[in-house]
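Question (not urgent): is this output format expected?
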Amino acid sequence: MTRIVVLDDYQQVALDHADWNGLPDGCEVVALAEHLPDADALVAALAGAEIVVAMRERTAFDAAILARLPDLRLLVTTGMGNAAIDVGAASAQGIVVSGTAVPLSGTLEHVWALILALVRSIPAEDARVRAGGWQQTVGFDLSGATLGLVGLGRIGAEMVPVARAFGMETIAWSQNLDEDEAQWSGVRAVGKEELFAGADIVSIHYRLGPRSVGIVGAAELAAMKPTAYLVNTSRGPLVDTAALLEALESGAIAGAALDVYDTEPLPADDPLRSAPRTVLSPHLGYVTGNTYDVFYREAVEDIAAFLAGEPIRVLSA
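Got this back:
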């Protein structure tokens, strides 16, 4: 019997988004809905598992954890990269790491849902109506405003035509931004200080790495207009949370919309939960039916190929 464990199936839908019955006879598939942040609990839950499917970066697999999983032969991650997996340590232990494609549409749509909810105070006004009240806020117009993109990768570039449809100007910055690429995408490349000073909406689309931790800090937030908003759907550590909380409490910026956090799930006592002028979502950017279809269908393909002795979509360190 080949034991396969699917981790972090929060909505308990993983088995509905792919044909797991199409795997060879002798495969036992178990999906776990509860997140297991404790190392001992994780190792216990994965005892005897030869194959594990990890959803994005919800659960970390560092060298210490991998060393405690002697039966593990294949680790599948949704996406073709996962900063929470030590691929080098896995390879040294003889564990194959495979990935899947990542559709962009879900995250792109969620970014704009957050922006609109933020600038029109939708959560606050919804709560007010349900409590018997009526309109209190005055919305911010996107038409004529400037969108500042921190990073112009795949999702950042896809933000541009939507911004144009709203009548927005778009500017962009990253450490290695190609001005010709920016122009081709329909944006104006600017310096970092100019972006934060000039944008009405700053949206982060940056890869997390050692050099990008805290890339949005106190200086960048101080440069923003008091009428400007910050949106982060990339990775929590890209923003200095303490500096953001101070900016929100002091009114230095108009508000923030966040889908990602330093620690996920967000601790119950985290001060962000009570921060003013915020819209918070629980890392929902990629959580759509179509995306899950791709993730789990390709995870099953990865498993079937591995069991057939021909691994596919293998990640290297």
